[in-house]
């Protein structure tokens, strides 16, 4: 007689559900989308917080009567209202930034073209490394170099150039022998924004479609004609963007201008003379440590003006790039 062992009744194990690759990718995509959206919202929130702070703290100076501004606003002698105070500062800021951009952009574009289309690979890599390293130098170092080394040397050139221009019948140009003028500050600002414009323009030129260049060469174009007909049209909007980035850096630069420029509060095109112009950022840095009360509100209000100028420059740059994109060689 045989007996059979009865096995205990057990349920079969549940099937293991494997996560599909598509589900994982969708989850990662969802997380990335939320992180990107949160970063954009955070950036806008920070920008809005800065704007609110500037408006809130600068409003007392914008609405204060002339008597109170003269007594407590920290205005120079002979200046009665905030409008009279901010006007020459805006003029000096825009003039210095425009001069720096005019000096730096052609040189930066030339360097970028040399790196991307003329220099051998090893030499191009070395020059690119030097340009990137130049962007990492602190502004205070540029200020020390410009005030102690460049200004005494370049003052001779400014005096000679002022004498040549002053000989013209319709110009009256003066120059200081100390070299602490807006022209010297603009040269230093140009050196500071040069690596920014060069780096962006170089990357844009390297993105030129190879077929465009080969087509131009096949038609018998020289290297310069290839650059003129294929590379520059393709990178025009990128060069404009690079120039606007450099302009933003020049508008907000503080220490270098503060250490070089002998300030004034005039609407003057005497760029070789001392005591003529001043920039907003340098003026805030020089006066804020000793300011109190309404004088602090006055300086913050000038910072609001600089904020508005920077926003306007960026909006103008975006409009120019969007307008020129349809005419780019990439299309």
TrEMBL record:
One GO BP annotation of this record: phosphate ion transport
Keyword Transmembrane in record: yes
Principal subcellular localisation of the protein: membrane
UniProt region (Disordered), positions on chain: 1-22
Location of this chain's protein in the cell: Cell membrane
Name of the protein: Phosphate transport system permease protein
Membrane topology: Multi-pass membrane protein
UniProt superkingdom: Bacteria
Keyword rRNA processing among UniProt keywords: no
An example Gene Ontology CC term for this record: plasma membrane
Function of the protein: Part of the binding-protein-dependent transport system for phosphate; probably responsible for the translocation of the substrate across the membrane.
Chain ranges of the ABC transmembrane type-1 domain: 90-317
InterPro entries registered for this protein in UniProt: MetI-like (IPR000515), MetI-like_sf (IPR035906), Phosphate_PstC (IPR011864), Phosphate_Transport_Permease (IPR051124)
Chain segments annotated as coiled-coil in the UniProt record: none
TM stretches of this protein: 31-55, 89-115, 127-145, 151-171, 183-206, 226-247, 254-272, 292-317
Species annotation: Xylanimonas cellulosilytica (strain DSM 15894 / JCM 12276 / CECT 5975 / KCTC 9989 / LMG 20990 / NBRC 107835 / XIL07)
Stored Pfam families: BPD_transp_1 (PF00528)
Similarity-based family: Belongs to the binding-protein-dependent transport system permease family. CysTW subfamily.
Keyword annotations of the record: Cell membrane, Membrane, Phosphate transport, Transmembrane, Transmembrane helix, Transport
One example GO MF annotation: phosphate transmembrane transporter activity
């Amino acid at each position: 007689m045989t007996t059979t062992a009865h096995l205990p009744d057990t349920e079969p194990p549940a099937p293991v559900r494997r996560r599909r690759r598509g589900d994982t990718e969708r989850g990662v995509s969802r997380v990335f989308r939320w992180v990107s959206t949160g970063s954009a919202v955070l950036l806008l929130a920070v920008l809005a917080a800065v704007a609110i702070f500037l408006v809130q703290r600068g409003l007392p100076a914008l609405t204060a009567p002339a008597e109170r501004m003269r007594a407590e606003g920290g205005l120079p002698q002979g200046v009665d209202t905030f409008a009279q105070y901010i006007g020459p500062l805006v003029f000096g800021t825009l003039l210095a930034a425009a001069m720096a951009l005019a000096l730096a952009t052609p040189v930066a574009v030339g360097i970028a073209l040399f790196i991307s289309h003329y220099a051998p690979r090893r030499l191009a890599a070395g020059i690119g490394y030097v340009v990137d390293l130049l962007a990492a130098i602190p502004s205070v170092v540029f200020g020390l170099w410009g005030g102690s080394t460049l200004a005494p040397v370049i003052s001779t050139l400014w005096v000679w150039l002022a004498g040549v221009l002053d000989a013209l019948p319709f110009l009256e140009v003066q120059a200081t022998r100390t070299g602490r003028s807006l022209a010297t500050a603009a040269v230093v600002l140009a050196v500071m924004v040069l690596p920014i414009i060069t780096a962006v323009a170089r990357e844009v030129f390297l993105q030129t479609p190879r077929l465009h260049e080969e087509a131009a060469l096949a038609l018998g174009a020289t290297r310069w004609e290839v650059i003129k007909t294929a590379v520059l049209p393709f990178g025009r909007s990128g060069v404009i963007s690079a120039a606007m980035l450099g302009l933003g850096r020049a508008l907000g630069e503080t220490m270098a201008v503060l250490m070089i420029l002998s300030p004034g509060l005039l609407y003057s095109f005497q760029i070789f003379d001392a005591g003529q112009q001043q920039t907003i950022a340098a003026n805030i840095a020089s006066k804020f440590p000793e300011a109190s009360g309404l004088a602090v509100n006055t300086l913050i209000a000038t910072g609001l003006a600089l904020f508005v100028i920077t926003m306007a420059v960026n909006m103008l740059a975006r409009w120019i790039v969007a307008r020129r994109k349809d005419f780019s060689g990439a299309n």
